[in-house]
């Protein structure tokens, strides 16, 4: 399975010349034949519409035709279920001139889209990484624990730790001790301690294994599955750094059980639900904090103008952008600077290079943030952020030029009257 750490920043480095880069996102959950036909017609229509914008003799047309033909062949193979029949989403980036051909398949679906631009469109992929953070799902038991690593909505690693637990004598009939209650009590007490020692040993070994795995995957959240008593006992064995990453404690549903252990699809769904709940909280907190930081003149900016300027200066630590962000701007192919107002400059204010119009400023902002190694938080529509044109950023440092705070908000925005 694919890991997106490094993949997004690598894709963000690609920039085309005369032949555009094609970005294709597809929902390939084949529920029925009608769904396949809808996808086929969507791709066919988008290819026809794309080629209609390029004259036959225009530069890059021949390469674009080759790229689109290869994409059509790829989709035809998908429709025939020749490969990746168990996946639900495709993200493909291609450009014949650049030798770029990157198909990525996921368990999670995408909104259908086919676009051409000088840069790959990465917002949907960035949101997948943000919304489906990796998680360690742990189901502790007396014998140890079942451990699963869920990443990008797919099961990546599975481990079953089992230790020895002695059988307790009281589970069997013992006629010899029935007439001697004191001897029976002492024997049972010793037996319970002996049993608990083995359980504790197994629990600590499982906690140590989970800790070691987490230390190699520091971005993981932790989901614990089991009875309240079992989960609480296991959580006590975890170090503080792991306890802080626990986002859910779930009962173990019966429909998760199968002949060979826990059902993998149940584990993935349980982790996805826990992550979705956590993501809603994180999105709300990110919006609240970036607005507060900006209005205080601290390490935050709001609005396209200030955000792109901070990006051009390499000061963005974390980008917060609405999924419905809409805007146009410009880009300099020489120094990769971007701007939020295509009419504001005739040449690049940074290097004097030639400017090109950008039809989708949101994609340009996301690509530039990923290129600089910034985190990208793609959030659902929120009135508070939307009042500032739907984009904000946390900064690594304030600018020496005094760039602080937000771009002028809409009249209804918080703080607009100040």
The total strand number stands at: 19
**CATH fold type of the largest domain:** Nucleotidyltransferase, domain 5
Rough outline: globular
Percent in strands = 15-25%
| Widest sheet: strand ordering | 7-6-5-8-9
Q: How many angstroms does the end-to-end distance come to?
A: 51 Å
Average pLDDT value?
84
**What Rg do the Cα atoms give?**
27 Å
Characterize the structure shown.
With 418 residues, this protein is an alpha+beta fold. The protein folds into three domains: 7-131, eRF1 domain 1 (Translation, Eukaryotic Peptide Chain Release Factor Subunit 1, Chain A, 2-Layer Sandwich), CATH 3.30.960; 135-278, Nucleotidyltransferase, domain 5 (2-Layer Sandwich), CATH 3.30.420; 296-406, Ribosomal protein L30/S12 (60s Ribosomal Protein L30, Chain: A), CATH 3.30.1330.30. The chain has helices at residues 7-12, 33-51, 61-79, 123-131, 181-216, 228-236, 240-243, 264-295, 304-312, 361-371, 383-386; strands at residues 21-27, 89-95, 100-106, 113-117, 135-141, 144-151, 154-162, 221-225, 246-250, 257-258, 261-262, 300-302, 316-322, 329-332, 338-339, 355-358, 375-379, 391-395, 405-406. Helix 2 (33-51) packs antiparallel against helix 3. The longest helix has 36 residues, at 181-216. The protein is globular, with a radius of gyration of 27 Å. The protein starts with 6 loop residues before the first helix and ends in a 12-residue tail after the last strand. Mean pLDDT is 84; it is low at 170-178, 402-408 and 410-418.
């Amino acid at each position: 399975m694919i890991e997106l750490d490094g993949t997004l920043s690598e894709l963000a480095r690609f920039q085309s010349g005369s032949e555009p880069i094609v970005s294709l996102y597809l929902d390939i959950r084949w529920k029925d034949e009608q769904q396949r036909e809808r996808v086929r017609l969507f791709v066919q229509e988008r290819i026809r519409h794309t080629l209609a914008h390029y004259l036959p003799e225009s530069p890059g047309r021949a390469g674009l035709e080759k790229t689109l033909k290869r994409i059509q062949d790829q989709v035809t193979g998908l429709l025939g279920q020749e490969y990746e029949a168990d996946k639900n989403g495709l993200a493909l980036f291609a450009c014949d001139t650049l030798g770029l051909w990157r198909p990525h398949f996921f368990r999670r679906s995408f909104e259908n889209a086919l676009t051409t631009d000088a840069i790959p469109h990465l917002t949907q992929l960035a949101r997948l990484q943000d919304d489906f953070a990796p998680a360690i799902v742990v189901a502790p038991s007396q014998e140890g624990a079942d451990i699963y690593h869920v990443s990008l909505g797919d099961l990546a690693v599975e481990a079953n730790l089992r230790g020895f637990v002695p059988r307790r004598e009281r589970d069997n009939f013992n006629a010899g001790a029935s007439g001697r209650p004191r001897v029976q009590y002492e024997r049972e007490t010793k037996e319970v301690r002996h049993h608990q020692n083995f359980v504790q040993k197994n629990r600590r070994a499982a906690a140590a294994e989970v800790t070691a795995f987490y230390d190699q995957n520091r971005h993981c959240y932790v989901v614990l599955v089991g009875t309240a008593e079992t989960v609480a006992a296991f959580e006590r064995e975890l170090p503080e750094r792991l306890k802080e990453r626990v986002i859910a404690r779930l009962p173990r549903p019966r429909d998760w059980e199968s002949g060979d252990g826990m059902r993998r699809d149940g584990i993935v769904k349980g982790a996805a639900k826990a992550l979705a709940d956590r993501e809603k909280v994180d999105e709300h907190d990110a919006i609240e904090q970036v607005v507060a930081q900006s209005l205080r003149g601290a390490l935050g900016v709001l609005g396209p103008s200030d955000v792109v300027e901070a990006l051009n200066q390499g000061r963005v630590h974390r980008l917060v952008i609405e999924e419905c962000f809409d805007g146009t701007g410009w880009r300099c192919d020489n120094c990769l600077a971007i701007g939020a107002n295509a009419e504001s400059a005739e040449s690049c204010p940074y290097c004097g290079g030639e400017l090109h119009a950008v039809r989708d400023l949101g994609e340009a902002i996301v690509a530039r943030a990923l290129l600089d190694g910034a985190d990208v938080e793609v959030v659902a529509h929120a009135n508070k952020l939307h009042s500032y044109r739907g984009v904000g950023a946390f900064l690594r440092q304030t600018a020496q030029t005094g760039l602080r705070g937000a771009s002028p908000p809409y009249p209804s925005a918080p703080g607009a009257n100040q």
